Amino acid sequence: MASSCWGLPEILCEFPSLPNKTLRHMRMGIDDGFRGIVRAYSDQIDAATRPLQWFLNMLEHAFVDTPWFIIFGLILVVVWFASRSAKIVIGSAIGLAMIGVFGLWEDTMTTLAMVTVATMIAIILGLPIGILMARSDRMQKILTPVLDVMQTMPSFVYLIPVVVIFGIGKVPGVIAVVIYAIPPMIRLTNLGIRLVDKEVIEAADAFGANPRQKLWGVQLPLSLPTIMAGVNQTIMMALAMVVVASMVGVGGLGKNVLQAINNQFFTIGFLNGFALVAIAIIFDRASQAFGKRLQKHSEAGHD
Amino acid sequence: MTDVTTNAGTGPRSGIEIRNLYKIFGANPSAYVEKVQAGMGKEELNDKHNHVLGLQDINLDLPPGKISVIMGLSGSGKSTLIRHINGLIMPTSGQILYNGRDVVKMNEEELREFRRHETAMVFQKFALLPHRTVLENTCYGLDIQGVPRSKSEPVAKKWIDRVGLAGYEDYYPNQLSGGMQQRVGLARALANDADILLMDEAFSALDPLIRMDMQKVLLDLQAELQKTIIFITHDLDEALRLGDKIAILRDGALNQVGTGQEIVLRPANEYIAEFVREVNRGRVIRAETIAMPLPEGELPKMKVKASSVLEKIARRMADAEVRAATVVDKANKPIGVLDMPTILTAMVTPASVEEGDDAVEDNAA
User: Fold this and answer.
1) Which residues form the ABC transporter domain (chain B) (predicted)?
2) Which end of chain A is more exposed for a tag (fewer CB within 10 A), N or C?
């Protein structure tokens, strides 16, 4: 090695690192310690995740066991009420029909159930965290780097501790998806509230609004478009994450894609991929149209 | 400043008294109050200590039932001053007294109650809630007070009618023009039924014609309601038109306080003289101000009211082709005479500082 290094002494040639032995001890120490803690509290962890497990199973059964035409109709009704657009409803119908025709209905339902649960959790947790972050600059300073890490850390990496803690199955899958999908919800809630016109906030103050009245009467309604963009992003990221989550035992379209990768099944891979795309587009268009409809007051602008 | 005498307790209604108010912006404002009180200037505070002197030694009585105008250019501290009255900004030191209570000493809950029931505010950029209709916006103050819609909506409708927006109840603010939006802002403030009305450059964002229109709306409403109005403006014409009392603020200090006439006739310093030079004096100066003593013998036949402005009198005299008129008071009793040359001289001569009343001291130095 030293010869390829312009004849420099070793310390300048190779970056001085901790001895291998120390590193190994460190790694093993942390891993074992972590496993030990998890093992010690495994009962509590199981108990804590049981409601989630139950909810996931219930929703999956509901989606899978209900006759397809009912779910089909139900999705179209939801899309209609969200968007009030015949075009989006027809597009959704075509997308869902294609999924069914190519034999992916059941897997799609499994995926849908998981994405629904993950998105709900992300919204339920993300909204209050985003509100807290908007209210305190210190909170924003603490949370911003955490969110940066959550978004840039390769998702496979945090699958490892999730699997160590929760094992293999749907629950760790959902948790991994939530970790991946929650940052835009938090960020955009924070941003939306912070961008609310200062004069309007001052007006609320001047009329004697208390913090609760300000939050529900002014800040949340006025930041709703941004928050809806956050919901939309969260759904998209959850859908993108289901393939990775299938590595820890989540069924559905992601599992098919994973198998296709392992066996080089070109057609299966693309069919399942397109099924995910179809769902993503349905969700995206419906939620965006819904967000836009919530802003009907900003239509027909005067200037 | 001439009139800082306390007038509390002289009537059933309380005005607002601002006492020794200082506002310093910066990391540690309270550390510098005493130094500023001891005479440290704005420049020194800024350059050496990196703090900004927002307001210094403000003493001002805002009489009840009158329109008090606080006038100043941008950066003079006028918007800061008005925000002290409802506690949106707290002073570094000083008192703001209303009904014997000091706004500065109120806790959060008391302050909220004070804002809900005693004050209402109109904003330069309207600050309407974009997701609420005109009616819902007008109800806002009452919603905050917890008044049910069944009671607040009739009140809101009444004020929407009163500001001339009947039929627009279900429109959203951005479907309306600027002038109409500010009418909503005014209706929202009036629906609160508060004694104090704070208007922060309320008409500054409007076109000149619409601004005149809104000034008239405000004067008509005030004739009927007699609220304690504090009106902020950078426009002297607006100040003279609306203000029963005008306070001129410059660099965070009061330069002169008085009626429009006093300010136009006896500007306290060169800065204010500069301001009033362009004013249409015929619309400000009143007959009683320049009337000459009653002469021996016969009085001129034409009678003019003591409170009439010169422009009106001149027009009447020109129409009637007379050269002199008798000034009479409210009881129709002659108190003096006026002739055309006197009126013309008063209308065109710019006031000079040297003639200024001794009682008006120069505070800018």
Assistant:
1) 16-276
2) C
Which tokens belong to A303? Answer: 């200037």
- Looking at B276, B297, B321, the residue that finishes a domain is B276
Q: Can you say whether the dihedral through the CA atoms of B343, B347, B350, B354 is positive or negative?
A: positive
Maximum alpha-carbon separation in chain B: 72
Q: Is the CB of B144 inside 8 Å of chain A's CB atoms?
A: yes
Helix %, strand %, coil % of chain B (to 5): 40, 20, 40
Best of B106, B147, B172 to mutate (most A CBs within 10 Å, chain A):
B172
- Total domain count, chain A: 1
Chain A residues with beta carbon closer than 8 angstroms to that of B114: 208
Determine the distance in angstroms separating the CA of B272 from the nearest CA of chain A, rounded to an integer. Answer: 31
What is the CATH number for B312? 3.90.1280.20
Over chain B (365 residues), the average pLDDT of each successive run of 10 is 41 85 92 87 87 93 95 92 95 94 94 95 94 95 95 95 94 93 96 94 92 94 95 93 94 93 90 86 87 87 89 90 90 90 82 47 47
Best CA proximity match to A133, nearest among A238, A233, A219? A219
Domain containing B334: what range? 282-348
Task: Say whether residue B107 is in contact with chain A using an 8 A CB cutoff.
Answer: no
Work out the minimum CA distance from B78 to partner chain A, whole angstroms.
16
Cα–chain center distance at A193:
21
Cβ distance B112 to A298 less than 8 Å, yes or no, reads no
- Check whether residue B289 and residue B185 sit in a common domain: no
Tell me the CATH number at B181. Answer: 3.40.50.300
Best of A205, A207, A218 to disrupt the B interface (most B CBs within 10 Å) is A207
Closest-CA residue to A212 (of B152, B187, B112, B136): B112
